[in-house]
Amino acid sequence: MPLYTIEATYRLPVYRQRTYEATTSEAACELAIADEGWGDGKEDVETSGETYVTGIWKGRTAYAGTTIAVPDRFDETIQRKADFFDDLLALLKEPARPMGLSRHEFEHWLPRAMATIAKADAIVADAARGR
Fold first, then answer.
1. Least packed by Cβ within 10 Å: which of 48, 62, 87, 99?
2. Which tens digit of pLDDT belongs to each residue from 1-26?
3. What b/e string do you get for 84-103 counting C-beta neighbours within 10 Å, with b at 16 or more?
4. Whole-number Å distance between alpha carbons of 109 and 13
5. Residue 120's CB: how many other CB atoms inside 10 A?
6. SS3 assignment for the chain
7. What is the largest CA-CA distance in the chain?
8. Count of alpha carbons within 13 Å of 117, Cβ hemisphere only?
9. By the 8 A CB rule, do 114 and 106 touch?
């Protein structure tokens, strides 16, 4: 039976609470984002993210041997949603054209739209199951 080395990851939020003097709350947010000092940061283990796969290699060693593509469903849900945004936006733009769709364009568009909806449904279902 083949061996696979799997690299799995989860995101651990780190937070800090600091007070900034600024003219508006938006300006204070800009100061907080620009502030690179994290020496007083605290890990928030209570709200760590889901575990997802970041790499697969055939054999016993990561980063050696044959790299195998990670199946989409094992990627981080939030990243899958972000990647999917471009697909959905492009798909939505097609029927929104002022000239409308011809019968040929519609027949080309509909199967892609249905596949896109199925992919979106799978992402939502995985998220509901905690994946």
1. 99
2. 999 999 999 999 999 999 999 999 99
3. eeeeeeebeeeeeeeeeeee
4. 40
5. 15
6. CCCEEEEEECCCCEECCCCCCCCCHHHHHHHHHHCCCCCCCEECHHHCCCCEEEEEEECCCCCCCCEECCCHHHCCHHHHHHHHHHHHHHHHHCCCCCCCCCHHHHHHHHHHHHHHHHHHHHHHHHHHCCC
7. 64
8. 7
9. no
CA-angle at 69, arms to 50 and 10, nearest 5°: 15
- Sequence-ordered list of residues with C-beta below 8 angstroms from that of 42, at least 6 positions apart, any chain: 14, 15, 16
Task: Tell me what the mean pLDDT of segment 54-65 comes to.
Answer: 93
What's the CA gap between 113 and 106, in Å, rounded?
Answer: 10
Q: Which amino acid is at 12?
A: L
For the CA atoms of 64, 69, 72, 75, what is the dihedral angle to 10 degrees? Answer: 10
Structure tokens at 127: 């998220």
